[in-house]
Write a structure and sequence with these properties.
Blueprint: H1 6-12, H2 14-27, H3 34-47, E1 51-55, H4 58-68, E2 76-79, H5 86-93, E3 97-100, E4 123-126, H6 138-147, E5 151-155, E6 163-164, E7 167-168, E8 175-179, E9 193-197, H7 200-210, H8 231-240, H9 244-262, E10 282-285, H10 291-300, H11 330-338, E11 339-342, H12 350-366
Parallel strand pairs: 2-3, 2-4, 4-5, 5-8
Antiparallel strand pairs: 1-9, 6-7, 8-9, 10-11
């Protein structure tokens, strides 16, 4: 059994993927080839913005966004303490200071009711993370951001394909960022990511920064980086694209089925009214006293599970200098002790889900 089944996906789309890759091999434009522009135009239209810039990874996309906003030493950027480390490390990479705000119990996303208390005169931006495949409360976050003149960068690395009140993830804030890491809902066969915006000036800045700080060769207007997306990976995504909406629907069906089967035994994902969920991970909560034992028992039974994430940022040595202590973010800390992610992908069969849930129920009851 696969936790995320990329093999089945490739076998289903093999002819299309192989043909797209072969085309790149034939034209030989491996860096910023025509597939890159084709993909960017397609994704910008899908998200509903004027500009899409593909980049080398989801982590790089966040860093480029911060650089384009001229955020650096002396500035503060607010994000959550419960996510993959990219959401916070990029803030330190540009020389700014991460400031953490606790998450909601129900969604694992930034708790907007706690946001304003974290804002100071040094705050320049907010990075809400749309964790596990569901968007954060962007309306409430934007209301506060406008009040304090702050930029909002949605970290949609896990939520591409999701929507909120009819607007797609990565298209609701000043800058949207996503990842094409293979395990993501829309993934390539290596690292990759993208940035989205309606702001022409920001788009120009981000395009320059991703290519060593210059929109034109040998003319550098910014301190940039090598953040270009690989043409071969763009080709893979273009081959997968015609199937993406069907995969999103199948993820929704699998998530709903899991919740029906499990809601009596554990805490299942809460999809907020107005949101859709792409279930980058299907994450439940299990009592903290037995979570690790349940995870180990599932693995011993041949069912792969994951713990995203076993430690919060303020527990990591790299952020010790920020001065936070355990207990400062009780919801994030509670989540780190309770979360358990089950196999999730568009090709998950109903009988596989029944096997997974039956074994999980047996193990929880035994524990």
């Amino acid at each position: 059994m696969e936790f995320i089944d990329l093999k089945t996906q490739y076998n289903r789309y093999k002819d299309e993927i192989d043909a797209r890759i072969q085309k790149v091999l034939e034209h030989g434009q491996y860096i910023m080839g025509p597939e890159v522009k084709e993909l960017e135009e397609l994704l910008a239209e899908y998200v509903g913005v004027r500009h899409c810039m593909t980049v080398s990874s989801g982590t790089h996309s966040l860093e480029i966004a911060l650089r384009a906003l001229d955020i650096g030493p002396g500035d503060e950027v607010i994000t959550v303490p419960f996510s993959w480390i990219s959401s916070a490390e990029v803030i330190m990479l540009v020389g700014a200071t991460p400031v953490f705000v606790d998450i909601e119990y129900e969604t694992f996303n930034l708790d907007a009711s706690k946001l304003e208390d974290a804002i100071t005169e040094k705050t320049k931006a907010i990075i809400p993370v749309s964790l596990f495949g569901q968007m954060a409360d962007m309306e409430a976050i934007h209301h506060i951001a406008r009040k304090h003149n702050l930029a909002v960068i949605e970290d949609g690395a896990q939520s591409f394909g999701a929507s909120q009140n009819g607007r797609r993830s990565c298209g609701v804030s000043l800058i949207g960022s996503t990842s094409f890491f293979p395990a993501k809902p829309f993934g390539c066969y290596g690292d990759g990511g993208a940035l989205f915006t309606n702001d022409d000036n920001l788009a120009s800045n981000m395009q320059a920064i991703r290519t060593h700080g210059g929109a034109k060769r040998h003319h550098h207007t910014h301190v940039g980086t090598n953040g270009r997306f690989d043409t071969m990976q763009a080709a893979v995504l273009l081959a997968k694209w015609p199937h993406f909406e069907e995969e999103v629907e199948k993820r929704h069906e699998a998530g709903e089925r899991y919740s029906r089967l499990l809601r009596e035994i554990c805490v299942t994902p809460d999809v907020v009214n107005g949101n859709t969920h792409v279930y980058a991970q299907y994450t439940i909560r299990v009592d903290s006293e037995i979570r690790n034992e349940v995870a180990n028992a599932m693995k011993e039974a041949g069912i792969p599970v994951g713990i995203y994430y076993p430690k919060c940022f303020h527990e990591q040595p790299v952020f010790k200098h920020l001065g936070y202590s355990y207990g400062d973010f009780p919801e994030a800390e509670k989540a780190s002790k309770e979360v358990l992610s089950l196999p999730m992908h568009p090709f998950l069969k109903e009988e596989e889900q029944e096997e997974i849930t039956e074994r999980l129920i047996q193990i929880i009851n035994k524990e």
